[in-house]
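REVIEWER CHECKLIST
Item 1: Sequence provided? yes
Item 2: Single chain? yes
Item 3: Sequence as submitted:
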Amino acid sequence: MRMSEGVEWGLHCCVTLAWLDGEGPVSTARLAASFELPAPYLNKRLQALVRAGILTSTPGARGGFRLARPPERITLMDVVAAIEGTDDAFRCTEIRRQGAGAEASGREFGRPCGISTAMRKAELAWRRELAAQTIADVIAGTPASAAERTRRWFASERTPT
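Item 4: Structure as written out by the authors:
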């Protein structure tokens, strides 16, 4: 399974916004500058997180983004689903019924194919694991120096508004 870079961007922005809680909304330009990302593309990912209820957005010159709920209530799966969508990663198209399989009796296809079952099982395990981890869990495993460095960077004058 391959996820877009937007998932990484969204997760890092959620961690950053958690570290900056109480600082007011953070603009796309400031978030983009902090990671050296293209602001228009990052903004699309942030808007997806707003639509999913993960972030809130405040318009205007002093506007920007904040977490919509505490980091303990935002799972990694929430962010993945907001950015990538909720469609299954594997879609069985029943190719076993084509070609040589077209001659088989209908009873042979009464149960889902073993490949489809195995792939679904793996995807459910992946989704459960991401749903069991929160932004707060990620923060807990991050060195305190990273949070302090981020706060200092955002407090400095070198960041755009």
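Item 5: Key structural point noted by reviewer: The chain has seven helices and two strands.
Item 6: Recommendation: ____
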